[in-house]
Fold each of these.
Amino acid sequence: MAMIDKIQALSKEYFDDVVFYRRHFHATPELSMQESKTAAYIAARLRETGIAFGEGVAETGIVAHIEGKNPKSRLIALRADMDALPIHEKNRVEYRSANPGVMHACGHDVHMASLLGTARILQALRNEWEGTVRLIFQPSEEKYPGGASLMIQQGVLENPRPDAIFGQHVYPGLPAGKAGIRSGNYMASTDEVYLTVKGRGGHAAAPQENVDPIVIASHIVVGLQQIVSRHATPAIPTVLSFGRMIADGQTNVIPDEVTLEGTFRTFDEAWREQAHLRIREVAVFIAQGMRGDCEVFIDRGYPFLVNNHRLAANFRQYAGEYLGWDNVEELELSMTGEDFAYYSQKTDACFYRLGTRNVEQGITSNVHTPTFDIDEKALETGMGLMAYVAIRELSDGNKA
């Protein structure tokens, strides 16, 4: 029996168990850096499978290794994130969150369950492939500074350094059974912008006696749009958006200050630094020109995510072989962010998407919504595809 047939057969054999894993994770979600019960469950499943692992990496992370024949020949890392979001689930399913206000609304339950399934497949076939696979169960993808950065600091990419790292993420834009990939720049850097606009409040009927921070803040929001339209190179995708503006006045009261919160995203580190300076300059100059002031704080977030061209081409080949060429889609550039980007800045990396949509079943909600769910057939695809990608990359990844 060919390797691909063996992997597909094992994916079907383990499917019910992996569905059970996923539903357990979904019903018992934990927020970033609080994933202790989640980690204990993962450890128990690895222990049952006979896979060696270490616990407590970046507090709640787990790193495991599966050795095939000639284990020092090549090392491939596979990553799954563990944390949930502070969202109250609205799905009426038997496995809905039992932790009010916390939900696996970004599919990390799928990622963990799939990687456990992949681990079982790789362990079962370990005498039939060469090299070593490192399994990374990572905490706190959703919360800055990101569990990826913390695990990297603690050596997850060292001793030895992996030849490549792959990450899989749910994607409700694709039907279950499909996968998506984009070569090169894929996801944006993610910085948070906080502005405090200060004026002098007073009675709204006497504006001449006040320095109105609401008017100043409004001019700043409009003025900052030129950072994108007139300062950014058109070839570099850039977004600057404000989603929160707080002016605690009344219908007849102008407040002393206004706070603004937004996000800045792009795909170039040099331009990212320049843009931070210009955001500060524009906001401060506009405020001062209107007799007010503005304090600027930019919280530097995740870097942009880049898919290594060789690995992306390899993945496209492997996925086509495993799923059929009609089931591999080319993805568009995304302005969303992911802390997998930290890995991609340190070593050859490939971050691909796993389709989870099923229109007939009404499974169409996007991630980060209270009604997000998946067609669980995606779990069979996810565990098998990742196992096949790992084995193929270990055996002849350098040849592509």
Amino acid sequence: MVETHPAPLVREATAAPPVAFNGWGDAVAQSLLDFDFDFDNSDSFRGSVRHRPFAGIEFIDMSCDRHVAHRSAARIGAIERPDYIMTLQLSGEFRMSQDGRTALIKPGQFAFYDSTKPAELVSSDNYRSLCLKFPQRLLGAPSNSLRELTATRIDAESGLAPAVWAMLLKLNDTLESVTTANRYATVHGVMGLVGSMLQSQTGSTTPLRRLESRESLLERIHDYIAGHLGDPDLGPQELADAHFISLRYVHSLFQETGVSVSAWIREQRLERCCRDLVDPALATAPVAAIAARWGFRGASHFGQMFKAATGQTPADFRRMSREDG
């Protein structure tokens, strides 16, 4: 087995500022995940981490001195997004433990772990890596189908691994040059290749990225809308980009329901506004503030939309609800 992969390892060091041990926990929590740490030499420890989001996935450049990171069950938040973190080892050594396995990762190798499970990560001196953090749903596979691969060493010189390795390093170096319009399409291609590589590692002939039913996809889009109603720019193009589908397909999904994308968003916003207007806890909140909270661009526009939908002005609706109560 060849343990080095010289060509792609020649990369410029991250430009992130150095962090001492007393700031390392916050830096890693903000960029990656929440851990507890043990340091061999806390006074002399230095590390750096650079985090860059990219169309729903995240690239994290990290370098540091020797230390141990523990992610216990207590550190795993109940509302955290289930993610996978794939580590491409560039220098030093890295020991990853999860699911009863431990893998020693050397330069030219990589491995991944599940953010929803306890893990222990040990970094050597002269540690440097590129981490790719991505939502588990992007692989379209049940988590148990990949359980046998967590904390398992993958060599960057076999199967599809060389292509994944080279692609991720190159993309990390050129993130800023990718136009906004092309970012989601780029991520779609990246995750397709990553999924194919992991499928080949399992020996399975069943594609990890199975086609999702239209009903399930529409449900996910509805959930996304509910979580982003406060964004006045929310619209069909954002929904298409966030779910890696075409704009035409978004409109097609809603057409089957008999309600357009824009009408659905407007109805959801108006429903939230109605709830706030009758909420005693918000009795003194200005109508304009409630409208802005749910993504309406101005009080006048909101008033027109509200009266068209309910036959009343927001103020009349609020007053009558108090009288009825």
